[in-house]
């Protein structure tokens, strides 16, 4: 499908790929269409992209040709550990056989990310496995979800969600409480 989209080589139809933490804003970087990419250095960079035919990134990624993804150890909600396999997969970490053994298993790469595959086979990410916080009620919370909900609030310039015991360590790493640190916009800070 993506090959058909970029077949016409006019400037307006060029597809710009990006990865990292940021998101493209329509028309701010290049002419043509910008899409968010999902990738890992270990997998040869970008393995999936936001669908360029949708007007706004909806949080689901289309796997690039030759890339396979699996969700393992999924919970009742369908979210679990994301594993990928691609022809450009690395062979090993340099001088780190133990890390390689945990990360590469039978030709599949453990990404460290948590997500699910939707009904159309698109990859939906919710966060990093290491970032998951287990609350006092036993709920698994991904800081990225909470940050996304708060980021849309008027007066919020940026924020960070973290676990209370990350700041004030205790022996019990379960039963966490969430802390939200907010930097207001300059207009909101005046009140």
Overall radius of gyration: 19 Å
| Apparent shape | globular
Low-pLDDT ranges: 1-11, 18-24
Q: Tell me the distance between the termini.
A: 51 Å
Mean pLDDT: 79
Number of helices, where a helix is a run of at least 4 consecutive DSSP H or I residues: 5
Got a strand count? Answer: 13
Order of helices and strands: HEEEEEEHEEEEEHEHEH
Strand fraction equals 35-45%
Largest sheet: 9 strands, mixed
Q: Give the structural class.
A: mainly beta
**Estimated helix fraction:** 10-25%
Set out the fold topology.
Layout (H helix, E strand, L loop, with lengths): L1 H4 L9 E4 L14 E8 L4 E6 L9 E4 L4 E5 L7 E6 L11 H7 E2 L2 E10 L5 E6 L4 E2 L5 E2 L1 H9 L4 E8 H4 L10 E7 L1 H4 L2
Parallel strand pairs: 1-2
Antiparallel strand pairs: 2-3, 3-4, 4-9, 5-6, 6-8, 7-8, 8-9, 10-11, 12-13
Keywords, please?
191 residues, mainly beta, 9-stranded mixed β-sheet, two-stranded antiparallel sheet, 5 helices, globular
In words, what does this structure look like?
This protein has helices at 2-5, 97-103, 143-151, 164-167, 186-189; strands at 15-18, 33-40, 45-50, 60-63, 68-72, 80-85, 104-105, 108-117, 123-128, 133-134, 140-141, 156-163, 178-184. The protein is mainly beta and 191 residues long. The strands form 3 sheets. Strands 1, 2, 3, 4, 5, 6, 7, 8 and 9 form a 9-stranded mixed β-sheet that branches. The longest helix has 9 residues, at 143-151.
């Amino acid at each position: 499908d993506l090959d058909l989209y970029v077949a016409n080589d006019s400037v307006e139809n060029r597809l710009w790929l990006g990865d990292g933490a940021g998101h493209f804003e329509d028309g701010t970087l290049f002419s043509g269409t910008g899409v968010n990419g999902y990738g890992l250095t270990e997998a040869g960079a970008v393995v999936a992209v936001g669908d360029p035919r949708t007007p706004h990134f909806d949080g689901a990624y289309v796997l690039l040709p030759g890339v396979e993804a699996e969700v393992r150890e999924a919970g009742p909600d369908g979210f679990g550990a994301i594993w990928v396999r691609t022809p450009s997969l690395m062979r090993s970490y340099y001088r780190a056989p133990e890390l390689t053994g945990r990360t590469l298993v039978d030709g599949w790469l453990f990404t460290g990310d948590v997500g699910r595959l939707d009904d159309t086979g698109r990859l939906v990410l919710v966060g990093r496995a290491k970032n998951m916080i287990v609350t006092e009620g036993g709920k698994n919370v991904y800081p990225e979800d909470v940050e996304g909900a708060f980021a849309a609030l008027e007066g919020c310039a940026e924020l960070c969600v973290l676990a209370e015991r990350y700041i004030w360590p205790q022996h019990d790493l379960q039963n966490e409480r969430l802390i939200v640190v907010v930097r207001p916009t300059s207009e909101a800070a005046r009140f």
